[in-house]
Amino acid sequence: MAACTVYSTQSLSTNCSISTPSKTQLSFHQKQVVFYTTSRRNSKRGINSGRSYVITCAASDQQTVVIGLAADSGCGKSTFMRRLTSVFGGAAEPPKGGNPDSNTLISDTTTVICLDDYHSLDRTGRKEKGVTALDPRANDFDLMYEQVKAIKDGIAVQKPIYNHVTGLLDPPELIKPPKILVIEGLHPMFDSRVRDLLDFSIYLDISNEVKFAWKIQRDMAERGHSLESIKASIEARKPDFEAYIDPQKQYADAVIEVLPTQLIPDDNEGKILRVRLIQKEGVNFFSPVYLFDEGSTISWIPCGRKLTCSYPGIKFSYGPDTYYGNEVSVVEMDGQFDRLDELIYVESHLSNLSTKFYGEVTQQMLKHADFPGSNNGTGLFQTIVGLKIRDLYEQIVATRAETPVAAKA
Ligand SMILES: Nc1ncnc2c1ncn2[C@@H]1O[C@H](COP(=O)(O)OP(=O)(O)OP(=O)(O)O)[C@@H](O)[C@H]1O
Ligand SMILES: O=C(CO)[C@H](O)[C@H](O)COP(=O)(O)O
């Protein structure tokens, strides 16, 4: 993109740097502009009128915090996003007056963009080339990187829209830098340049058995697909899922792994879930949640006088582990709650939750009792990760406030 030329008589702001222009430095995304100055104050600083300079300014004092959420389609990303947005308060809505098929959701604090918008091939194009949407060749990672970087630097972008209704690429929409940008979709951690922009990353790892059960529930009941077509679509995606999507979990700071229960031998109904929250150690601004005693290995059955459990009950586990060569802490919940208000008993035994008041996890869960997974570990751990992201954001902002921007000019 071409650099813009600015004619101004204003003095330079202190959080801008100035250098002799060179063509390679001119980049709109870095907010570098050619600047002609006539200001006296600038002349005193050695900046002469009539000559051109390159000015690099931080677009705002507040840099956007970027969160990545990766998962296959139909694995609960939208549900997770609704829980996360709710932690910050306020409703998330598509951009006002924009494309009704926009995939973007904006709230006061967060903007969630769907990485499907970076499909470089539309539905017909993919069919012609014989590639799935999961294949990197069907996605524009250069543009994804440029635009996420620009937003992180405080610069608005015109982001493309992939229209899931028509299967076409629609005209772009304006995305302004929010406090928190969530990039959700198939590939937030695939490209190392994009990955490096993430302040925190999450992978929703839904086992094949559970994914199948959820897909049937949604695509048969809500979308009128046949059982055979659902099976065929899952099978067709599998090779690319395993090649390009699944490997991203090794980079995630938190993984929510969803497996069939171990409380019922040979269960094949897929209704009771064993959910593991795998938390990487040593991540900036993130201290893993633990049960009872940090670093110990613990198994806990909370059912009894304080927690009502029907068959097959509930079992929690906690302990240190390694995951793709990284040290992690894992909290696990197998089973489901009968009474959500009793969750406070479990909450009171978990530490490092980053809640703002006693019972906040329970309150959030009760608020969204109708969301899928509210009676099991998926809802519980999604809520906890939402609170950890709020905490991470607040820590990053506080750290920046303590570090004054150095005047570079
Ligand atoms: N925790 C859960 N427990 C049970 N079912 C769930 C859970 N999360 C999601 N589902 C089921 O999976 C479906 C898809 O969920 P959701 O829309 O959140 O996923 P998604 O990843 O955003 O999907 P897509 O990418 O296809 O839009 C839901 O309609 C629901 O049937
Ligand atoms: O894996 C997906 C991510 O959501 C979709 O299948 C992909 O975006 C293609 O979308 P559509 O099926 O609407 O053409």
TrEMBL record:
According to UniProt, the reaction catalysed is:
D-ribulose 5-phosphate + ATP = D-ribulose 1,5-bisphosphate + ADP + H(+)
Keywords, alphabetical: ATP-binding, Calvin cycle, Chloroplast, Disulfide bond, Kinase, Nucleotide-binding, Photosynthesis, Plastid, Transferase, Transit peptide
| One Pfam family this sequence matches | PRK
Would the keyword Acyltransferase be found if you checked this record's keyword annotation?
no
Top-rank EC class of the record's enzyme? transferase
Its localization reads: Plastid, Chloroplast
Q: What is this protein called?
A: Phosphoribulokinase
